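Support request, please re-run this one:
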Amino acid sequence: MPREGAHETRDRVIAAAVSCIHEVGLYRATSNAIAQRAGVSWGVIQYHFGSRESLMLAVVENGARRYAEMLSDVVLTAETTVGRVEQCFAFLADYHGSTGHLAVAQVMIDLARDPNTSAEGRKRLTSLGELGVAEKDHLGRQILQGNSARMQELRDLVFFAIQGVGIGYILSPGFASSTEIDAAQYRRRSRLIARAVALLIDEEQSQRAAAASHRSGGRRTATAAAGPG
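Re-run finished. Output below.
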């Protein structure tokens, strides 16, 4: 049997940490519990990560990179805003409704709020928050077709809505024993929220277009009133 490489060991430990956090909660996911689940000693985890804090940061980094890669693969082909937002929700709903996303969210909240988080840890956490920003911008331009001065605000609205629906699903009482019926209900709710968000985007863009038309009409009237110079 070939010897496992360092990369494979790190991946196995990170996967064990995510699984442990999901099953017993962040605070019960102790270093020893994670090591036992990964089938390694705590010394091995120290060798690869250095500390529990560094391991938790690796969990966040792994999730952030996966999310950025997922975003970069999304291609929206629908002709309407509603269609494009629904497509975006469909692509990302599985991730935001996953145990991996819940684990990453728990770790990020804990590290950001814990006064014992090291300065280096906070610095890494801030830099990890930048992962996926370019991909979100690209996806936002696909959704909005580049037609809004408030693109970042509206883009964030889409992602916050997706995250909210996903976290609501994860925190529902039946999530641990989720059935296909529960999953189908989650997808239906995602589509309804997507349509509501799309209506807000269309309304904002319509108002902006009307305001631009009004300003243009005002300039034409002023020019006509001035007459030839």
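The two ends are 90 Å apart (CA to CA). Residues 180-226 form the longest helix (47 residues).
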